[in-house]
Structures
1.
Amino acid sequence: MKAAFYSSSFETVKYWQKVFTEANTLLASEEELRALLLDDPSVPIIVDYDNVAQSINKMLQDDEIIENLIVLERQPNINTGKMLIRRGVKAYGNARMLNIHFEQLLDTVNDGKVWMYPALMQAMIAESEKKATLPDIELLNRLTDKEQEITLLILEALSNDAISRRLGITIRTVKAHISSIFGKLHVNDRLALVILLK
């Protein structure tokens, strides 16, 4: 099964090469990752989150699409997993899993489905069964329709750049709307806005 590995750790890449017997692509930089995504956007990208989290988080925050992103780390964390799955990651698990689990993971992702280790899956199911909390509607009614739209994107943790691209407006316009939102809701920053509305 073809896949690409993105890591700055030689040790991790060597381990993954042993686990996957077929020929695979090794990526050592964000530039190489972007080039591969332009050339073959559907290839599964297996990411060593312990070593390249900052690069991946920035891409996710900027709402960049990575079709088959698989994130692995040495000590998987349920909260990290939930955040990544919500951001569109197709699989999250242990970087040192057994070969049989790697194969299941890749088969699942290649079938267009999401793969999670059992504890993460249980946590996601339990969370979805809870009643979803909506932002405070009364506070949102103080805002214009565009400001409400931007506020909901802020609550999804999108950056100004990502909001700009999503809505087809300039970053300057996004910033102007955010300043207006802060003024109308009497908050000073994004964190205060999230706390107020959640």
Note: The longest strand covers residues 69-73.
2.
Amino acid sequence: MNKFYRFCFSLMLFVFVTHQVTAQDPFAKPVKIAVFAPLYLNEAFEGSIYKFSKSTLPKTLLPGLEFYHGVMMAVETLAEEGMQAEILVYDSKQTAASLSYLFSSSDFTNTGLIIASITNPAELKLFADQALSKHIPLISATYPNYVGINGNPFFVLINSSLQAHLEGLYKHMQSYYTGNTIVAIRKPGAVENYIQSTITDLNKKTSSIPLKIKWVTLNPATFSATELTTKLDSMANNVVFVASPTEDFGLKVVRTINTASNYRVTAIGMPTWDGIKELDKNDCRNVDIVYSTPFYFLKDGLANEITALYKSKYGSRPSDMVFKGYESTLHFGKLLMKHRHNLVNNLNDKEFVVFNQFDLQPVQSKKVAGKPDYLENKKLYFVKKQNGNVKSVITN
């Protein structure tokens, strides 16, 4: 069986298999974990027959499949360590049974933890409501990084929200660039308005030295290099904050600055920059790059082992979805085993850190008195790149 067929065959098996990690102690009762991933199996299979050509894998399937592979690698690790867990894996996009039906099925009885790779706000709301009604901690392991729920201490957001990133980026700039005039580049848009108002508000309320910020709005389709360079100082180290999550706009700003080689510039960007591979190419290498991310998978030790194993099985390098599936299952699975009846109050236990040191803090609004709206990961990593290579990683 070639690597592509093994890749697809593992996808087909996904709907039929419950993964049991047997306890060393025959009298110990395994914890039960439900994992949801967006596999879209109904689009890929007719019964057990793969619908597409042997060289085709629809893009919609890939993120969920890679997340699932990471989960399965964690299951193997748990088994090797003699841990006690029953892990049920569901396709969150299956058409045969709704999510509501799955949550109410007998298979879901005694579940102590839900781990989900969620794809849209409506799905997120359904997962969050079920977690709250059943008092089961729900780990939102990938996307989205916005919430819109209230009074739910069982919902755990690992992928930090835009608000958390803005607060972190502000503190980072305050720690390292208070001596600079920061040129904040944005484009027209509602999200950009929110970013500017948030940073401006943080600057007004700070008890420390406020930032010196010059806001500049550019038309993303027509702005010229001159519009940017006239805001820079050829005799100083310039700091440019790209206040927009739109990847194309951020990349265009960096490429434009890169052409002005007589200016020294550090460009600080949004968490979306973590996925822009073009920032490592030659047309961006005159610019130092800084961005925030809640996930930093250091490519050594365990990460190298996972990469080697994944390449041997599937003939490709693992994406961040593989690492997220592995980390969320291994880290929170072990925490559930340790804190079986009180996991929600022990989510910040650092005993089983895999790659990232999550700092899960309650987010409180005035909508539901006395209850946090959800728990959010406030731990951020600030990655600095020079000439396309990571030079430093700073934590908040």
Note: The longest strand covers residues 31-37.
3.
Amino acid sequence: MKNLRFTLPEIRAAYAAGARVADVVQEAVRRADGDTQQSGVWITRIPADALAARVKALDSLDAAARAKMPLFGMPCAIKDNMDLAGYETTAACPAYAYRPKETAFAVRRLEAAGAVIVGKTNMDQFATGTAGLRSPYGTPRSVFGRDYVSGGSSSGSAVVVGAGIVPFALGSDTAGSGRIPAAFNNIVGLKPTRGIISCAGVVPCNRSIDCVSPMAHTVEDAMEVLDALAEMDPADIYSRVRVSIPARAGGFTFAVPKAADLEFFGDTENAQMFADAVATMERIGGKKIEIDFTPFRDGGALLYGAGFIAERVVDLGAFIEAHEAECHPNVVKLILGNKDRKATEVFAGQHKLEALKREVAGLFAGADFLLAPTSPIQSTAAEVEADPIALPWKFSFYTGFGNILDLAAFAVPAGINKRGLPFGVQLVGPMFTEARMAPVASAFMKAAGVVTGAPA
């Protein structure tokens, strides 16, 4: 069991060979307890007696009952902005902590599918941040070294998957919070079409565009989690029915930003890594076209540069005003600094956004998806602390537009650069194209020779 690589097929093979749920969960707990390279990864660990009761109930099920549970006996983790009945939800702010009576819809779906939640993971406070350093519970770091940031805001969830503690975890993604940490920890981050996984019971960041983001070692595993969670939820006003758009016949076409639009902020190694990724995508049969990246970039800029940022004030502003000294100063600055946005700014932003959506739809008429870097750079914690606003913004240069333009995306590993750090790319497509992009994303990883997770 100690040598088991935690992916869903390997765990299923262990069960088929006679392993008990108790054995697998015990191994996940052992790995969590023994991870001395990390601090602050967990905010809440599920107590041994509660885990034992859950494991006993699953181990007692017969084969027919197990077959109805697509994630039977799979240990996992959830981000601590998601409610789990009986356990505190903190959103990485102790003053905000509350103990919900009801579990978040997506987490209930996990449990109904047979998964075993072993803990709630650390995060950037109120899901506001892309580096993973804005938490009083400690700062998870990349599995590639304590000097490097883990990425945020789903920092802990990415690390526990990258470290091989659990086969998958749930994060959330508003502007890249599920994709950037996936890239920095060399795993897969799926940002599904917003609304197909309910956000009921998830502390909002930007409520209208938030989404739950599965993180795993393989595209197939991430899609299995999506399949288990996706269901219309009347309790979430932004929930919608999932539609599956099949692949086009005759191969695939992918778009890339034209050369003048690519930005790596001076990181020439990652620029070469992206060029290699484009070549790999062509090698597996893709036809490349170059497009104007401007509407995507302008869409991302709207999220922070127009009235849309004021949405965070609606859900969190009153609390932060009352508890300013107990909140992270950069979170306070971001949210309270936007409390006086004018309604005219919001409507002007909405008009521009609808025009950008139409322009982007036209670009996708000739391509199945956009291939772009996930993050153009990766930085040390010291570098981020020296430049805590501008540098994390650079991480989201290629991710910020995903939800506001109503797109779907896979962040997948693309290899290790010469500095020994992971580099990742995104496949970004129109809404509901997860199933169309998944086989290509998987084929890309195989062709690139990717080995996910922490370095050997």
Note: The CA atoms of residues 149 and 350 lie 34 Å apart.
4.
Amino acid sequence: MPTQRKVPETLEGTVIYNFDPLISKSPYSVDYVHSYAQDTPFFAGLAEGRLLGSRCPVCDYVYATPRGHCMRCGGPTEWHELPKEGRVHSFTTCYFGGEAFLEETPFTLVLVEFDGANTLFLSRIVGAEADEVSIGMPVKARFLRNSKFKPTDVYFVLAD
């Protein structure tokens, strides 16, 4: 006689927000394995307290957010160290964010412009309220002491 198997029952319920249409809340978790491939030097640089962009050796265009190939001429780029100080080009305050930022909401994102770079760098500004941030204000990069090898390893603060 075959063994009868049952699905284990729990006392957990389901949170329902609506019945027509049915909208429910369910937790979801996944381990994500990701390779940074050609961008590995950028993340290694953050762990070392360095901000790396890229430069095209053909047309001398400098990307604050690194690119493997130049978007102007198509040639391969080289790693280029950016200054740690720049200026706010524009900014926005976020009142909702991904899970990693929920405790920090609201937070302010800035597009930073650097001397010698042709493009902008997107990051957070920390330690400044939204009404303290303005276009053109000087900012400087700060790095997490314990690198997570993520884009959030770098953030900006108001320059002295």
Note: Helices lie at 40-47.
